[in-house]
Amino acid sequence: MKLEIKNVSKSFGGMQALNGVSITIDKPEIVGLIGPNGAGKTTLTNVIDGVHNPTRGEVWLNDERIDTFPPYQIARRGLGRTFQVTRAFRRMTVLENMMVPAMAINPTVSKKEVLEKSWDILRFLTVEHLANEYGRGLSGGQQKLLELARLLMLDPDFVILDEPFAGVHPKLQETIYGYIDKVRQEGKAIILISHDMDSIFTLSERLIVLNFGEIIADGHPDQVKEDPAVIEAYLGADEEE
Amino acid sequence: MKRIPLQGKYIQGILLFLLLVFAFAFPRIMADKPYWLYVALQSFFWAMMAASWALLAGYAGQFSFAHVAFMGIAAYTSGIAGERLGWSPVSGIILGTVMAGFVGFLVGYLCLRLRSTYLALFTIAFSEIVRLIINAEHQLTGGPMGLYMEPLLETTSYVPTYYIMLAALIVTLLSMYAIANSRFGLFFRAIREDEEAAAAMGVHVVRYKIAAFVITAMIAGTAGALDHHIIGFIAPNELMIPRMSLIIAMAVIGGTESLISASIGAILIHFLMEWLQAIPVSEAMMAKLQANAATVQQFGLTLGDGVIQTNAWRMAFFGLMLMLTLRFWRNGLIQPLLEKIGRQGIAEETVAKRKLPQEENENTEVQP
Prior knowledge:
The complex is a heterodimer. In chain A, the strands form two sheets. Chain A has a six-stranded mixed β-sheet, with helices on both faces. In chain A, helix 3 (94-105) packs across helix 4 (111-124). In chain A, 40% of the residues lie in helices and 24% in strands. Chain A is α/β, with parallel strands linked by helices. Chain A is globular. Chain A has a single domain (3-235), classed as P-loop containing nucleotide triphosphate hydrolases (Rossmann fold), CATH 3.40.50.300. Chain A has helices at 41-48, 71-76, 94-105, 111-124, 140-154, 170-185, 197-203, 221-226, 228-240; strands at 3-12, 15-25, 30-34, 56-61, 64-65, 79-81, 158-162, 189-193, 206-211, 214-219. By secondary structure, chain B is mainly alpha-helical. Chain B contains 17 helices and five strands. Chain B has a three-stranded antiparallel β-sheet. In chain B, helix 8 crosses helix 10 (205-231). The longest helix of chain B is centred in the middle third of the chain and has 27 residues, at 205-231. Chain B starts with 6 loop residues before the first helix and ends with a helix. At the A-B interface, helix 2 and helix 3 of A face helix 8, helix 9 and helix 17 of B.
């Protein structure tokens, strides 16, 4: 498994959202990605999963260049993501939501197999009772869980979780922790974007800090926490508060 | 885990079966009223158009106005193939369907990046261009005078054509139902809900959006070519936008997220529109109306032989019905009804699942 982001830049008109970002993830680990608002976290996510093409630089997944691929091809090659603002298919039931990725990546899989897997995942996430509910009927936290459930159906090697804890009840947060733990145990890599510092420092094995579209720190969370540039640009602001 | 059977699905099945029995018996019931038999077979044309539009717009989220154009392209292709090349109506219908599918592919491809209002405007422009070309190319199409279409059957009875149209409706509905319930339908709905999220889940959005246009254009094409070989004639004004609006309104009133609801909606509205043309009234009422004939006329109504002819008012009624549906019943009038029946049992099943772990725990506790 290997995800390589090589010297990626992305600009929108005159605005430079990313500038020479390089990251390599080549082992199962939880990589925290933090940065102040507007630092370029979501842009980086969108470049990795094919929503945006980089203005400069390359993205490689398992030794294949993917930055010119559309998102569906990248998903099929083993990279899945959630969205900062949840994007459940609102007029589809939870089970139907979950069937989409499983059937999209495997054209020959039977509906029965997919349903069995869906029920297992719903049981794991302890939301079995929501199986036949429509996406629009779920609470914000439940919609976050649904996105995770879809990711489990997609079963990618690399998972990008964009703000998975935002606006989520503590009890559901526990379930999300359980999900992250399960995915990590399965030998997958997780890129975790969050403003929830407690979660980031609890979960991350490696921490990357973005500021104004550039990486200002990349290392073990304990080291990053002490990095003067980080303290100045990001954590320092919190401490002062 | 023990599952509670979904009894709602069985009730839905029984209702649909009864509807089918009624449809097959209709020519016998209306043996002495051939006009209503003709109305019925025409309603099946509208049902195919509304249901295929529902698949495109309701399922796949592509709010297109090009449906009448696809219908017209297929009908004209078939008519011209018959007139110029001597093709039989059946061969012509097949050719017309393929042609509609091909044009559907082109429109689908060109509309890939267009959403909502822009897609609607694009397809309105496309439909109007097709209509104007047909109007202008009179040497080939007959222009505004229309084109003769060889009759499908040499008979004056509506009974065989009724059954042909009924069969066509059943076959197209079953095909669309199979598509809607396959991975195609699942991906159509995912794309409708959120293209970006669907792509992130591995769905090939481009392929399925184009597929939605091709499939539904072919069904509209089949319906159009078949129906106009029954009518024996087609003119460019059948491709006018108000006709497209009628199809949309039928699908919306029935319910755009259910093929059967959209088609039932189309059939009911077509019958209602025919019935509203001349509403039968009692003799006593007619006498009263005739006494106030001037006032009645002032309101735009006409008194006939035991009937009130509503003229333009039926369209006003229809418009009002559409407005009320959009305001109060966004999912249409038929679809929520069928959905309510279909989801019976699901609530109990869900509650049962919620209770189950607790019950299991209770059972464990009482066991020694």
